[in-house]
Amino acid sequence: MELEVAKDRWITVHYRLFDSDGEPVEHGEREITYLHGGYGDVFEPIELALEGRLAGFETSLYLEPEQTFGDYDPSLVRLAPRESLPEKLEEGMGFEGVPGEAPDGRIWIVTDIAGDQVVLDGNHPLAGMALRFELKVVEVSEADEDEIAEYRARGEG
To answer: Are 129 and 67 in contact (CB under 8 A)?
Structure first.
């Protein structure tokens, strides 16, 4: 008997991600295997859409920013002195924290280097974007009690 997507089962999903204009955000298909049931590894609307489904199920979901990475927050953009960052620096590099500020758990991405100033952005790169997910359930399997306990112990549940 085939297993359906349910709490505390491992779910493998292939997905493609598009912006609101239908343009690919990432090229090609990606795969994720996660423990289903509200552990935060996938967005809640995705879990709800997959609940009770079998391997082979396909769907397309359109999610607003508040359902994914949130709205873009301009207050999460900082200027940092160039000399406070590594000598080898390029746009797209990420840092844990902003020099001179207390760590906040965010990854701050270099978005611009202008002379002696560097622009760091603490928003997720997809913040503020509505996204369409094309999803296909590839596999559903049981998680044993040890796996579930280990997952929860890592703070993921």
So the answer is: no
47: closest CA among 15, 6, 2? 6
Residues in contact with 2: Cβ distance below 8 Å, sequence separation at least 6, in sequence order: 54, 55, 140
Q: What is the DSSP letter of 11?
A: E
Q: What is the pLDDT of residues 17-53, one digit of tens each?
A: 999 999 999 889 999 999 999 888 999 999 999 999 9
Closest residue by Cα to residue 41 from 10, 63, 16, 65: 10
Q: Distance of CA 113 to CAs 24, 80, 82, 89, 142, Å? A: 27, 10, 8, 9, 49
Q: What backbone phi and psi angles, to 5 degrees, belong to 146?
A: -65, -45
pTM of the model: 0.82
